[in-house]
Write a structure and sequence with these properties.
The complex is a heterodimer of chains A (95) and B (485).
Chain A (H helix, E strand, L loop, with lengths): L4 H10 L9 H19 L19 E2 L9 H6 L4 E2 L2 E5 L4
Antiparallel strand pairs in A: 2-3
Chain B lengths: L5 E12 L36 E2 H13 L7 E2 L2 E4 L9 E4 L9 E6 L5 E13 L3 E7 L2 E5 L6 E7 L6 H18 L11 E11 L9 E6 L2 H20 L8 E5 L4 E4 L12 E2 L6 E2 L2 H10 L4 H12 L3 H8 L2 H11 L4 H18 L11 H12 L5 H14 L3 H8 L7 H14 L1 H9 L2 H18 L6 H15 L1
Parallel strand pairs in B: 12-13
Antiparallel strand pairs in B: 1-10, 1-11, 3-16, 4-5, 4-15, 6-7, 7-10, 8-9, 11-12, 13-14
Helix pairs in contact in B: 2-3, 5-6, 7-8, 7-9, 9-10, 12-14, 12-15, 13-14, 14-15
Chain lengths: 95, 485
């Protein structure tokens, strides 16, 4: 299996990672290499094997429904770039 | 082409906020209306190294819903990451469920206003966390983010595309609302966003097996808006198709002020959420004992209650449906029906009580008239203490001023006059005052007499300010008039 440059650009866009045009060729080759490994693994006969959700043979522990956290927004907002009226401010996200 | 040519195909995705005290993966409070970011902990903020721990009550509520719609319960359900970028989603992914939801295929029975009912399939229901809120008001060209809602437990209920009209979609939504509030797993408050709805809608020529291209209308937040949004979107798609065009698969918004849907500009170039299993959470195993215990604890559900109301109280299917739609209303009705006259109880609750609640825009929880008082009121009509007409006045006083039925009847001197001596005097007075009508009555045949009798009864009721016992008045009057001949 191989990927082309357009796919690499699309994945970078979805992941919000800026990839310099000069790096795209190398990235394409390396990801193709990883996918080759995936191809090798997919050659194994897995008929009748349940897909694994977790490598640990255990199940999720549950928490009692209780409020255990207190209001710490002052501490958290001390390290935020911009806040106002207890809100975190971010560059405008609506068109 | 007439309207009958096209068939509308509707599927709903309903997001229900579960009524837990704390969030689905953290110990932060979920209280509505708290000051911004006061209920957002390090887990909700996606601080480095923070790990989610699943809330048992969210799991329990999801399983309860599954049992209520007779669905397959996922014995092993798995959480997945749904990846997208938005500032109100600090982790850059939402923890949701994809391949192995906690609730599988089930069904609900919907009741149409004409009394007919049908079954709508539920494809699945899965647990997920809510995102925060973005505020785009004036923050110097920036957006404000409140993460109090981030991590609030949601149950997303996905229906099969089995609804064929706006009315059916609303009936389905009301059924889901009724089930979740009966179970007590959500407050169902649509105005506060505790229940939100995405509508998938497409058209196809009637009889066609294949679906047309659908659009999705996001976040419609009331029963009425769901109905209107479906109507205008159906018309929009019909216009496009009849002009020979094709519908574009996209997400749209319903604008209630303009009563139209319009395209949302897409947040991303491609809608690719790249789901994969959440490595921070293990699969959730649910054993039979847990399911059995919950099944045992389920309250009587709307459909069962409706059927019991029909059988136990001899109510029609429409009355039974109205009275069982809301648990609080059903409980109230049963408390009133304890007076022994279920038919009157059903009438008084539906006409006077629901009328008064609607008029003052109150819900059952704010109802100022205790059920026991309404029961007493019906007893007083039935034991002839007051007439039905006076009872309405008593009800209005109970509603506006409170107090007890008997005290109001006493204080206002409403007690019906059943003393035959007093009634006879009144009857004599009215007969003496209307000699002309008496002559007409005597000259009339049997059939007309009945009609003329009404005139005298009316005069007596007027003279007694409505407090004369009408049955006794009729008897005395007939005897006196007949003896006058």
């Amino acid at each position: 299996m191989s990927v082309d440059q357009a796919e690499i650009e699309k994945i970078a866009q979805l992941a919000r990672i800026r990839v310099a045009p000069a790096d795209i060729t190398e990235l394409t080759d390396r990801i193709t290499g990883i996918l080759d490994l995936v191809d090798q693994m997919q050659a194994v006969d897995t008929a009748g094997v349940e897909p694994l959700a977790s490598p640990l043979n255990a199940s999720q522990r549950l928490r009692e429904d209780a409020v255990t956290e207190s209001d710490r927004h002052v501490d958290f907002q001390a390290i935020a770039p911009v806040t106002e009226a207890d809100l975190y401010l971010v560059p405008k996200v609506i068109d | 082409m007439s309207d009958g040519y096209w068939e509308t195909v509707i599927g709903l995705e309903v997001h229900v906020q579960l009524a837990t005290d704390s969030k689905i993966f953290s110990g932060s409070a979920t209280r509505f209306g708290a000051s911004p970011n006061s209920q957002a902990s390090a887990v909700d903020l996606a601080m480095p190294g923070m790990l989610p721990v699943l809330n048992e009550k969210a799991v329990r509520y999801a399983v309860m819903f599954g049992l209520a719609i007779e669905a397959d319960i996922g014995r092993r359900s798995v959480f997945d990451r749904k990846n997208y970028f938005y500032p109100d989603l600090p982790k850059g992914y939402q923890i949701s469920q994809f391949d192995h939801p906690i609730v599988g295929r089930g069904q609900v029975q919907i009741q149409m206003p004409d009394g007919s009912s049908r079954e709508i399939g539920v494809t699945r229901a899965h647990l997920e966390e809510d995102a925060g809120k973005s505020l785009h008001e004036d923050f110097h060209g920036m957006s404000g983010i409140d993460l109090n809602r981030a991590g609030t437990p949601l149950l997303e209920i996905v229906s099969e595309p089995e609804m064929r009209s706006a009315e059916e979609a609303v009936a389905y939504l009301k059924t889901i609302h009724s089930i979740i509030t009966y179970l007590g797993i959500s407050d169902g408050n649509m105005a506060e966003g505790s229940m939100r709805c995405d509508v998938n809608i497409s058209l196809r020529p009637r009889g066609e097996a294949e679906f047309g291209t659908r659009t999705e209308i996001k976040n419609v937040n009331s029963f009425r808006f769901v109905e209107k949004a479906i109507q205008v979107e159906t018309e929009r798609q019909m216009d496009i198709l009849e002009d020979g065009g094709s519908v574009v698969q996209e997400t749209r918004l319903y604008d209630a002020d303009r009563n139209e849907t319009r395209s949302m500009r897409s947040k991303e170039v491609a809608n690719d959420y790249r789901y994969f299993p959440e490595p921070d959470l293990l699969p959730v195993d649910i054993d039979e004992a847990y399911i059995d215990a919950l099944r045992e604890s389920l309250p009587e559900l709307p459909v069962a209650k409706r059927q019991r109301f029909e059988a136990q109280y001899a109510l029609g299917s429409y009355d039974a449906a109205v009275l069982s739609a809301e648990r609080a209303l059903a409980d109230y009705f049963e408390a009133v029906a304890a007076c022994g006259d279920a038919k009157s109880a059903a009438n008084w609750v539906q006409v006077e009580l629901l009328g008064a609640l609607n008029k003052s825009e109150l819900s059952m929880s704010d109802c100022p008239v205790p059920a026991a008082e309404l029961a007493t009121l019906i007893e007083r009509i039935n034991d002839n203490s007051i007439s039905g007409k006076i009872a309405k006045q008593v009800f209005d006083l109970l509603w506006s001023e409170g107090g007890s039925v008997d005290a109001i009847i006493e204080a206002k001197g409403f007690k019906q006059v059943s003393d035959s001596g007093a009634l006879e005097a009144m009857v004599t007075e009215v007969i003496d005052a209307n000699p002309e009508q008496v002559q007409q009555y005597l000259a009339a045949d049997e059939g007309k007499r009945k009609k003329l009798l009404g005139f005298f009864v009316g005069q007596i009721m007027k003279a007694s300010k409505g407090q004369a016992n009408p049955k006794l008045v009729n008897e005395i009057l007939a005897a006196k008039l007949d003896s006058a001949s």
